[in-house]
Amino acid sequence: MSGNVTFHRPSTLEDALALLAENPEQSKLLAGGTAFTILWRNGLIQAEHVICCGAVAGLDYVRVESGMTVLGALATFRTVEVSQAVRDQCPVLCSTLHHVANLRVRNVATWGGNLAEADSSSDLPAVLVALDAEVVVRSAAGERVSTVQDLMVDFFATTLEPAEMIVEVRIPALAPWLAGSYVKFVSRCGDDRTCMGVAAFTGLGDDGSCRELRLAVIGAGVIPLRLPEVEAQVAGQVLDERAIADVAAAYVDASDPMSDLRGSAGYRRHVLPALITEAITRANARQNEAVMA
Questions:
Q1: Sheet holding 6-8: strands in order across?
Q2: How far, in Å, CA of 275 to CA of 272, rounded?
Q3: Could you tell me the CA-to-CA distances from 216 to 73, 212, 228, 246 in Å, in that order?
Q4: CA–CA distance, 85 with 87 (Å, rounded to integer)
Q5: Using only C-alpha atoms, what is the Rg of the chain?
Q6: How confident is the model at residue 293 (pLDDT cuts 50, 70, 90)?
Q7: I want to staple 110 with a disulfide (CB 3.0 to 4.6 A). Which of 3, 31, 204, 261 is the partner?
Q8: pLDDT by residue (tens digit) across 223-258?
Q9: Which pLDDT tens digit goes with each residue over 194-232?
Q10: Is 154 helix (H, G, I), strand (E, B) or coil?
């Protein structure tokens, strides 16, 4: 990093928000730095003031409260990945994290930084959107709550105002009949970024019919793709091969993938039905295992 840049290292959230309020248009927040450093070095982001939040106290918590998983914005991926409380409450979140980037990245990458970056290839937003997760956003002027679905609006773009920062992630308790899975598809080497990913949560009735389906996809557009109207259409149906194929076809029709080094738009549409089928099948299997346990 070079140029006329002033670095700040606040120790409290209030100090960080005050610094951000002083020069919101010329300031950037730095948390774990796994994405920030790459974007900065390539000239994709610029700032006169960089507010380093790593020393801000009290934002690295991980806890489960009344079934809700609550994560401070500075909690690292690794902290959540190895949390037994989170594993008991939402095992698919921990299993997804295990396949994100590598251990070095997970040791420093933060939840607030990841969501603020709004990378369309990031795995976690798909799971969080399917879980109906929310973020708490703060500024010196006050606080608001947004769903993760509404937070991300475009490629590397969110609804965050220049003076706002994410301070907390809230993941509601899953209904006891729901089980989930995340299928990650990497089209090149194993360490490469995700080409497409599908998060699926299913709940089956005693007769095998679908009580509830949640499905979110990354790589099908610039933000996670979720179609509540399609989810609702399969309620009461048996999630057999035909029903899953109909769901997959609807998601393909609604998708608007980009072409890049990991795959063309046509290729992504081609593999999406198989990924959706696999994600739903795995979720169904885990739901059946939970019932039999």
A1: 6-8, 49-52, 27-30
A2: 5
A3: 22, 14, 10, 15
A4: 5
A5: 19
A6: very low
A7: 31
A8: 999 999 999 999 999 999 999 999 999 999 999 999
A9: 999 999 999 999 888 999 999 999 999 999 999 999 999
A10: strand
Q: What is the mean pLDDT of the chain?
A: 94
**CA-based diameter of the chain, in Å?**
66
Handedness of CA 72, 74, 77, 81 (dihedral sign): negative
Amino acid at the residue 115: L
Does this model's pTM top 0.85? My answer is yes
Domains belonging to the chain, first-starting first, are 6-52 (3.30.43.10), 62-171 (3.30.465.10), 178-292 (3.30.390.50)
At residue 291's C-alpha, the angle toward residues 85 and 171, to 5°, is: 35
Q: Quick one: tokens of 63?
A: 């806890």
Q: Where are the beta strands (DSSP E) in 48-195?
A: 49-52, 62-65, 68-72, 134-139, 142-147, 152-154, 157-158, 165-171, 178-185
Whether 138 and 98 have beta carbons less than 8 Å apart is answered as: no
Q: Residue 54's CB: how many other CB atoms inside 10 A? A: 15
Q: What is the distance between the alpha carbons of residues 248 and 219, in angstroms, rounded to a whole number?
A: 14
Is the Cα torsion angle 214, 219, 220, 224 positive or negative in sign? positive
pLDDT in tens, 27-64: 999 999 999 999 999 998 999 999 999 999 999 999 99
The closest alpha carbon to 10, from 72, 78, 74, 63, belongs to 74
